[in-house]
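Ticket #4471: structure output looks truncated?

Reporter: J.K.
Steps to reproduce: submitted the chain below (140 residues) through the standard prediction queue, then opened the result file.
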Amino acid sequence: MHKVGDVLKVTVPYTSTGKEPKCRWFVFLGRLNFTENPRNAYLCTSTTEIDKYKNNKNSTWVEFKAESSCFDEDCLLCLDEIESSFTEDDFVNKFRPKEKGRITDEKLKEIAKKIKNADLAPKIIKDILDSFKLDEIPTN
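Returned output as attached by the reporter:
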């Protein structure tokens, strides 16, 4: 089972937009349906289209520099675009992700702070913040 903040690179190409699938990087942000098994996972994919999001005042994002993170390139996570259609097992079996590292506690605190104001349903925000707490990651 993955922990909040794990960075995963899928080995099977993925797309959620209909564009050409590619081997995407994801950050595991938590789970929904805590009392059910299997549980769906909250995943956020990174993008190198940094200017597209930085120039959008309605977008909630966190930036990562390659030299100070486990990402190969400068990128960001758009926290308004969180994937939750896979169970943890389905995601692993279908996309065979490789663990690439873990986001620092400092960046996880930044994500938690920003997720509270992201353009997401209140249940998603609550599930993600509850996942942070379960994995003992401070959200303040």
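Triage note (M.O.): checked the attachment and the full token line is present. The first strand starts at residue 6 and ends at 9.
Status: closed, working as intended.
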